[in-house]
Fold this protein.
Amino acid sequence: MSSNPAVEVTLPLSEFAAGLQWSSVPAQVRHEAVRSLMNFFAVSMAGCNDPTIARAAGVLGRYSARDEATLIGRGERADLLTASALNAMSANVFDFDDTHIPTIIHPTAPVAPALFALAETRAMSGAELLHAFVLGVEIECRIGNAVSPGHYARGWHITSTCGVFGAAAAAGRILGLDAKRIAWAFGSAASQSCGLVETLGTMAKSMAVGNSARNGLLSALLAAEDFDGPAQPLEGVRGFLHVTAEKPDLAGLVAGLGESWQLMRNTYKPYPCGVVLNPVIEACLSLHAKPELKVGEITAVELVGHPLLRQRTDRPGISTGRQSQVSAQHAVGVVLTTGRAGLEQFSDAAVADEKVRAIGRKLSFTDDERMSIDAASVIVSQGARKLEVAIDFAAGSLEKPLSDAALETKLRDLCAYGRSGVDPAPLIDAVWALEQSKDAGSLLRLAAGIRQ
């Protein structure tokens, strides 16, 4: 059933995905696409041997139909649907991947794995992959804009629910689908769109992100075989937008297509946790450096920030490193105690530290809707004495983006952390040269890793 709304979105998005020419994509957007993929390989290398990925690969590998696509950093291969899912999971498992502002979608994890799986099964240039990637990110983030902020507040995990449309659009472009078939792919994607905020801090969250890549790719493959769908899977009265949001912004979803670009609102994390914790961590690092801070004398810690900070990170009494990635109680405790904020500080061992837990128990939140999600104030009380640090824009935000060099360093560091055996130097060079490459799949060979 269709609502026949005054504003159509499925058809314009489908025509955009089928018709946009690479020559119409500005140079700065192309460069941001490459930066996104540099960050993607970095975080995938970090997560490739995590127990979440190992367990999922063990189960899914038993049922893999073919050995046709690479599992990043693992020295293993699987069929292209399974590889898409596992590589998306690897990219997102540590919550260290890119973040679109203001939706908080992690845009690359659902889209890039589907494209790289296809790149290993058909001839594809680097420019073609980048072109499809830009389209996929544009569409998933525009859909995310249209359902925000209520979508996430209702409990939908927006990366998973919107990412499936980005993967479908990107794969559909590579497969040469016309607008009608891309719309059909959106229909299949809509029926497979899922992911719940309740799963954050558990392995189940990673499965939803993996499914967004797998199911988006599957939707495009089905559409290529004339597997049809509804005319308005997005804006229909019972379509994705109206089912998952109270008042979706249909007009905004399609306004300025091909003129403004969502990739220019993509950001990259310096710390392995939910992006709203970045300013909190920076404030705590600054506080730790103050000689007057005495951790043993802290009586209270107050966080002042956008309501989303509390909604996403008020998680006391956690028990695992996975949960710590979205816990302000842990982030504040571990950074004030150690003065560090790397992957080791968000591990099971760090969570078990009683000094860290004691600080976390003293934490309270104050919501301020006037503040941006990139800002936070941390107020530490030591009896009657107070120390306060306010961060307006954290490193990695749109206002203070990570440099190209910082992204290279992130890839080197996370290659080492993930124990993949991958040499980062040739991979870094190949990512920067991707637009000129005649074989986009060659990056996966550089990122294959050595079986441990």
User: Anything to note?
Assistant: Strands lie at 69-71, 76-78, 99-100, 266-267, 300-305, 363-367, 376-382, 385-391.
